Amino acid sequence: MVAVTGRYQTLIDGLHGKVVAVVGLGKSGLAAAHLLGAAGAHVRLVDQKPEHDLEELSAQFPRGSVEFFGGDRFSEGIKTAELVVLSPGVPPALDAILEAQNNGVPVIGEIELASWFLPMPIVAVTGTNGKSTAVSLMGRIFEESGKSVFVGGNLGTPLSEAAMTVYQNTNIDPGGSCPYDFAVVEVSSFQLETIDRFHPFISVILNITADHLDRHGTFGDYVAAKCRIFENQRAEDFAVLNLDDSQLIPLHDSIRGLLIGFSMKERLHNGVFLDGPMIMASISGQTYEVMPMEEIQLLGTHNVANVLAAVAVGVLCECPISAIRRAVGGYRGREHALEIVRQRQGVVFVNDSKGTNVDATIKALESFSRPVVIILGGKDKGSDFSRLRETLLQHAKSIVLIGEATEAIAHALEGMGEVHRAESLAQAVALAERMAVPDDVVLLSPACASFDMFRDYVDRGQQFRDLVNALPA
Fold it and tell me: Any long-range contacts for 72-76 (C-beta under 8 Å, 24+ apart)?
């Protein structure tokens, strides 16, 4: 096991007695609040929801240990805080947060706070698409290699939960040890906006295409947020980069660690690449034959790139090649990401609810050589849906639209033939089922966020599963 002191022990010690406002009370915010409470901070839980809607959260905390500021008191909760911790979904540009910053109050994100407590090396993974798949696969590689690993972040389990486990095992119990050898963390552009000292041993960018422009404003600002993953790295750290992605070429100048590439198109002197049907790794002057590409169980050529990135991380962290091969060969993907739900009467139903942007949906469509009936739509994030046209023309026989973005997508696809509208996901599944014939694929890959009709993409994907499995045999 690794050293048992926090990465920034002075900052941790400074939390004791400090008034800290945690803004946004989703999973990340609540995890940060528990961590701050354990470190002795005076915690304020701040949300724009009315305070009476927040009362049910009080049962999660010891009586009197936190204060709630909701609704009209949102700004009040932030105004006199000595530190503000933002959940990823909270835009830093809110007036109350900008006012706090102008008054000299530090504003950080949950993932920044959590990183202070972690003594083990952090592998941080970002990109527009494929993050969850790559992070999950990296976790499998570490586990197959006998290493203890935390896998989470934007993926689902907040990093603050790992920090709390470490803190309880070390600071609270002086004889304790860190339970993790590594943390593999999915980080979003929202989380990277609010880092300060967040320092990954390995930073990975899988790809960058336009997304979340409703939050960032411009593609340049979105890229700049992603680039912050390199900000605190040093020469002894590693930056793993997709060398097939032209958008990443200008990022080379922002890399402070050693660049390790991955590519499906060219042989690399320092990275992971394809040599015909074989995955190869050439790192630190040594070349390894890792495994045949045919052993990959994931749908879609884009997932080959995710595998190459995961292999690079495994090799850099001294995982045995045999363990990497076993982990990759046995990995069948994450739920809601090109997940085969059912094969019925010759039709394959595929759940890609995690396809929340245009590029993810393009990659999903390109994964199939069979005709596709696709269900598109949801909450628009400022996307250019016209970019779907060419791929839909090549792969989709019919299109079913749902959600708030229906008319925007319909306008972008005007003149494209079979475009249908549905009032609900249930109606969309019924329509798609009727239009599909044997050897077709029915694909839910919305190219949109889920928050117009569902709690999140998981809820959307689960409802799709339930509806498909309820179809008669």
Answer: 74/46, 74/47, 74/48, 75/99
